[in-house]
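Would you mind giving me a polypeptide sequence along with per-residue structure tokens?
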Amino acid sequence: MNRTFEFRGGRTYYDEIAFLRGFSILTIVLMHLIQGYLKSCPGFLWKASSLGGTGVHVFFFCSGFGLYLSYMRNPVGYLEFLRRRFLKIYIPYVIIIGISALVPVMYGGNRIKALFSHIFLYKMFIPEYECSFGEQFWFISTLFQLYLLFLPLCRWKEKLGGRVFFLVSFLLSGCWWGFISVTGLYAKRIWNSFFLQFLWEFGLGMCLAKQAEQGCCIRLNAFSMAALSAVGLGVTAATALRGGPIKNFNDVFGLMGYGFFALLLYCCGGRRVKGWILALSEAAYELYLVHVLVFSVIFSVGGGWDKLEYGAGCISLTAAWAVSFLYHRCLERCRKIWIKGERR
């Protein structure tokens, strides 16, 4: 068992980043299952599961890392970048939204209006539709905002340099936290999920990607990671329990605590855990898209399963993983056919 984390740059693939991505999606899925469907769940477990939502910070960090790494290795123009995101992110998302719109239990309002708000991406401006068809879909709005600004951010980073770029990104996020706290907008999803809320961690991922390409080496022992994780998760939990606008300022501690806990698991969790999470990460985005749909359909059978809800939870998790894996394979095959058609 390796009790020292060592991140070495200069590689073509970083399984540490893949592990972080897979683990973050897994804990988010578990949080949604526990808080949304397991009615008899003990109160302490319900509260503890909230920490799983902190995985979104790691996912934004991983997105910044992966996108900028790809950009450095294969720079593309603005339209080509959006076209690739359209095929990889938007199309799978819209397909799931279209299916969800056909399932009555997924939304109680006007499904046609909600569907159009997703297709044309204006749901990010309307609170009623931001989380329609699944509470996880707020993330897609934020992701597309960052995609639209990604190439300008790359140009900005090249001009400012890594340290100044990160500092400015962090200051912009900090100003946004202060703005929504003072104005009382922090409780509304369209405001607390605006891209400025997460710009600093997306920018941090970009900066680490640059360092990785330059061959950096980072070493941390298990004790250091455990200590940093305990402090970060402790502050995050305390601010979450307190509630109010102070929660807007705990993202730094959330990313620190959750991220180092995941890396500790990566180092000390054993080969099976590591291998399973890495396998899950291949279809992490698809799992994020489909899990609420799968949970809702399964738990709607038999009036919510009553006393069998934990069994239904296990079935739901297994089904969500299976559906996401098959969906991922299907999408990959379609993309290959699309690329072959374009070459012809």
Q: What stands out?
A: The first strand starts at residue 4 and ends at 8. The first helix runs from residue 15 to 36. The two ends are 50 Å apart (CA to CA). The chain is about 75% helix and 5% strand.
